[in-house]
Input
Amino acid sequence: MNNFSMSVKSANDIIVIMPNGYVNDLGAEKLERACEQFFDKGLKKIVINFSDVQFINSIGASVFTSVVQKTLEYSSVLCFTNMKKIHRDVFDMLGITKHVRVFKDERDALNFLKDTE
Amino acid sequence: MKRKWDLKRLIFNISSLVDLGQEVTSSKGFNEKMKTTLYVVTGMFSVPKAALFVYDSNHHRLELLTYKGLREIDGISLYIKARHTKTFNKNEPHNIDEIRNNSFYEHNNNAFKKLRTKTFIPLFAKDEFVGAITLGKRLVRASYLQSEKDVLKVVANQMAITLHNSSLFKKLTAKVSENKGLYENMRHIYHDTIQAFAAAIDAKDAYTKNHSYRVARYAVAIAEELEWKEKDVEGIYVAGLLHDIGKIIIDSKVLNKSEGLSLTEMSEIKRHPHISYDILSKIRFPWKDVAHFVRHHHERVDGKGYPDSLTGTDLSEGMKILALADAFDAMTTDRPYRKKLSLTEALHEVKKCLGTQFDSRISNVFFRVLQKESKGETKEAQILPHLDKDFDPAIIITLLEGIIAELSA
Output
């Protein structure tokens, strides 16, 4: 059973993605595809709000490595917010957070991106 | 601090190996399973671009099975000779620079560039080369620590076994399918041969053209109504076709004689079930009891039949079915010594002989089948098409309803 879902909202040129549930199977690829589509449309500021993410395993981590890779290829800005410590630790360990901006909450990320070209 | 991170790394690796174990043993389809395992590996080592290949030894190629993070690589494959595989360390990650001077790399230079390969892992299940993984640049430091290489080797080993098992399963499935085809061909040949025999038996007796075939069909109709297993139904069909095979050695003049038979001639004819048995018991049929059904198709439930005067539990369901099917066809077809009975007369005759010549339960089943066929309630009629059409179905249905009600009372 796929326990992953996500919602997307936009504010001007900023996209906010809220993954929900377990990021532990190929169902999470939709997050990767969604980011790529936004980048293709020329949107270069993405916030991923982790407040509703319960669990991330190696498959989920793989999805985020792809999202980060695409961010780099499209010279875009990716922000992570509301991360639980356990998820932050895994992302730090995998080098993912070296390539993204991490904020305590979504508002901080939006304020940062507003001032970013 | 370093120790704390080492511990976290260790826990993450163990947890990822558990993920891998769950994926390779899951009931997912093979391609989805392999894609997920590739995600596990790339998640463990933060590799955004990777591909998994399966080895096709017939064409000396590594065929793309699944990939991640790469574009425009569909259909890509790597050329590899058996001698190349000997140069690899089994299931160990090779930095692409290590194999740059290898002719395998030279052959596939462009493909490796498209795949953004930084690390190449040859997959071996025991000593058999089964596939490979290509990994792109990592998000963390480029090189792998020895501890990471050790974990990668464990993961590669697991993926190699999964690939190998799938390959074995595919070969086995192909073999099973091939054998099934061969078996079906053999079965058709077998059936055709048996039918030819049945035709030869019936040809000997001018009055019994297609008798064996009809008896076989009637017996099948009863056996199916009794919900026999498919294989057993096939067995009684064959028994029906061959039940008179012993007549082959009975003198045609006796078989076709229109006037009364002498005692000697009668006992000559009565030899045929025994002869049939002698012939058929030498054949190792794939169905059980064919020879026994045939031997006893002239037995009666009151023990007055031949050749063994069996009665009670010594008479199996199959014997009783064949006896009824044979007698019913004899009643409803012309014989040298009498004209055939109408369907109504034949049904009355069967009913009259219940408990003496015929088994009541089997006969009741037979009546039920006929009733269903008369009402058009069966998918395929097996009895009515072989009878003369000079009866009124409504009368037969009423007659059968009466007989069935009487027997059920």
